[in-house]
Amino acid sequence: MADQAFVTLATNDNYSKGAMVLGKSLRNHKTSRKLVALIGPHVTEPAREVLRKIYDEVRLVDVLDSGDTAHLALMKRPDLGVTFTKLHCWTLTHYSKCVFMDADTLALANVDELFDREELSAAPDPGWPDCFNSGVFVFRPSNETYGKLIQRCTENGSFDGGDQGVLNSFFSNWATQDIAKHLPFIYNLSSIAIYSYLPAFKQYGGDAKVVHFLGKMKPWNYSYDAKSRTVKGDSQDQSTLHPSYLLQWWDIYSSVVLPLMKEHYGNQPFYTGIDEPKQPSETPHHHPPAHDHCRQEEIHHGVSHIHVSMPPQHPSISSEERKQKWEQGQADYMGMDSFDNIQRKLDSFLN
Length: 351
Ligand SMILES: [Mn+2]
What we know:
Layout: E1 4-10, H1 13-28, E2 34-39, H2 45-54, E3 57-60, H3 69-76, H4 81-87, E4 97-101, E5 105-107, E6 121-124, E7 132-139, H5 143-156, H6 163-170, E8 189-190, H7 191-196, H8 198-204, E9 210-212, E10 223-225, E11 230-232, H9 243-265, E12 295-300, E13 303-308, H10 319-327, H11 339-350
Helix pairs in contact: 1-2, 1-9, 2-9, 3-5
Bound molecules: manganese (II) ion (MN).
């Protein structure tokens, strides 16, 4: 199986964290395939070193430096830079078959059986199920296919501005031609789907093998309290993720990825995302209350990182107000409207 590989892409240090956790999750579930990380030029050296510890191959993709068709294409369509970087996975021709997984996915089980599928196999997109979601897909590296993809992309652009639009236009018969190329949804379960069809999640969610943290808020944008093992984030964010998957991500990150990062970053400071205990010299009066609603901005060596603490619980909120918030997409997924509470409510109806 040395000629088959899982492939991911990290364009910066944040996405590198995702790639590190993804790689570890695949290793934890004892994959027999190689692991390849494509990285962009902005990934810093310590992050590259950590990726090399986890991945068999870390390959720099600098489209501006490639001197190939992609470079020429990019001069005409500079907006498609990241898309071209991802399409670069087709040039990994020392592998006969690969499974691409976004850096914002997490393997919950061994998924080596995906290599039984053919190009291009992928799961439906929850927003438009006649399109596939390009977060997880099976492909065959080929310079010929790569060239055609770049050409098509340059001529027609991307209907959604990203790689998913390009790939769906290129593999345009995916929806109808061969059902074997439809991966079951459990290989690319997006958090959005959990809330849009909760009874289905209740029925099938336990079989999930890959979770995809779709949306603007990524796991690494939250912060983590190692002591209480809780993830903190903005509960107003519509894409707030299923807390238990988010916890699994942070569990791998804090237990195995972070120690590796500390080793390789050495004295060079970096943002861990872990809430450090307050210095004893600071008096509590100078701190906002534990559940202050305001944004706390922390400056780490010139880079600003925004922590958004959980707003206070509102036991007094009326059910009408709550319904209104829910309908505006402002469900309190981490609190009142957490999956546990929803499940309890559903159970009370079903019993
Ligand atoms: Mn993604």
